[in-house]
Structures are given as structure tokens and as C-alpha cells.
Amino acid sequence: MEIDPRGPRTAALITTAVLAAVLVTGSGWLLAVQALVFAAGAVFGLRYSPYGVLVAAFLNGAFGFRLGCEMYLLIRRIRPGRQALADPDLAENVAGR
Predict the structure, then answer these.
(1) For the whole model, what pTM was predicted?
(2) CA 40 to CA 90: how far, in whole Å?
(3) Is 40 strand, coil or helix?
(4) What is the pLDDT of residue 85?
């Protein structure tokens, strides 16, 4: 299974920023949170990494880009359409004939 490299790159960028903040502030709590985020990604996989949720929330808040809605529309465009309905009379009414 191939993954899009942009997700892990973004997570690495956020991790770098968090660890830099830990070095500057000396915060043990921030380091513990980062360790939990890393553990969640390692145990449950990249798909369930908390940074994906963080990025989606940022896109929604900053730009009004609702990632879930856009992904749904993209999947609906890519998926082939459904076959004709089982009831021919209903299919004719839907088609506007």
C-alpha cells in the first residue's frame, strides 16, 4: 500500500516545531504530549495520527476548507454512477421522460 508523502512530511514538520518548542521552553508536558502523539501514530498507523485531525481543523478554521466534505465530493466524482433503478417506471420519472 502506498501512502501520500505529504502527510508524513507535514507530521514531521509539526513534530520538529513541537520538539523545538520543548527545547526552548523546557516543558515536560509538551514533550509528553508529543510522545503520546508519536505512540498513537506508531501503534494505530499513519491513518489515525492525531496530526491529520489537527491539519484538517486548521484548514477548516483558517480557510473555510472542509476537508471531509471536499473528500466526499471527490470520491463521488471518481466513483462510477449507479446502474438504472430496478423499477422502469420510476427510472423514466427520474430521467424526466
Answers:
(1) 0.56
(2) 49
(3) helix
(4) 47
